[in-house]
Amino acid sequence: MNGSATSRYETIRLSVDATVATITLNRPERLNAAPPAMFDEIRAAFDELPGLGARALILTGEGRAFCSGADLTGRGDGQLAQPNTLTASRGEGAYRALTEHYAPTMIALSRLGIPVIAAVNGVAAGIGCSLALAADLVIAARSAYFLEAFVNIGLVPDGGASWMLTRLVGKARAVEMMMLGERIPADKAESWGLIYKAVDDIDLSTQANALAQRLAAGPTHALGLMRQGIARALEQPYAEALAMEASHQMIAANTADAREGATAFLERRKAVFKGE
Ligand code: T3D
Fold first, then answer.
1. What global pTM score does this model have?
2. Which atom of ligand 1 lies at the shortest distance from residue 73's CA?
3. How high is the pLDDT of residue 89?
4. Could you tell me what percentage of the chain is helix, strand and coil, using 3-state DSSP and rounding each to the nearest 5?
5. How many domains does the chain have?
6. Strand, coil or helix: what is 89?
7. What value does the mean pLDDT take over residues 119-146?
8. Model confidence pLDDT, tens digit, residues 5-20
9. I want to staple 66 with a disulfide (CB 3.0 to 4.6 A). Which of 10, 75, 124, 163 is the partner?
10. CATH of the domain at 230
């Protein structure tokens, strides 16, 4: 993905091409396995996005993987995460890693005011699968696969996986993924409704960028409100959803983009949204 990259990060790259930002997980030698610090860096990159003028975000991975999950060789805090260090402190370390590093990033992702695309270029496993599926639109290379790897190492799904999978594909398929821990190829993921689309590997970058450009040229405030609305609709009773939509519509209708949208319709031309 093109654009200028900032170099303050060790485990990711953040680049911006006009109004599209890309965060690339960048530990290809470990299939982009994520130590807690990587999720901290992702969160720090999120904080940069408004200042960079980003109106859409792509998440992707360097090399042949999207993300192989938590780094099983260690967390960088002296607490090893390997299966042969099953001690009480390992469990406490996992709890702290999740509550202090991984989960805050998942929450920050859910609260971003711009649309997020996951361009899944290879395996998305464990918490890497959660990260990918938390995007608004997940577009995956046909050779990529989704893997709830946890059961294979005696752990339980995290990063919001149990919440997300039951909602995305229903209980039966969520159970299949979580309890059997088998690879779900991109095409199957698309047919299940787990992701937006599977594309030929060679087309992934182009199609993800085209999608991001399209969203970045959209009415950013309305898209941000849609993200909030969709997340809350998963929890709310119908009457509350109606009330929330009315409140969001009041905000959206007051934006310059909404004025432009209506004007363009009446003038029979394509709207030019500025994210204002
Ligand atoms: O404790 C806590 O912090 C709690 C949080 C938990 C969150 C989680 O995400 S738990 C789930 C962690 N992820 C996994 O269990 C997946 C482990 N990886 C794999 O099963 C396989 O690597 C894959 C199926 C993803 C890919 O297989 P393959 O055959 O394409 O590649 P490979 O040969 O296994 O891996 C290539 C290299 O990446 C290899 O290193 P090497 O031998 O070349 O030096 C491998 O060790 C390394 N690697 C792959 N995944 C991880 C990893 N290194 C560290 N952590 C990994 N997760």
1. 0.94
2. 54
3. 77
4. 50, 15, 30
5. 2
6. helix
7. 98
8. 667 899 999 999 999 9
9. 124
10. 1.10.12
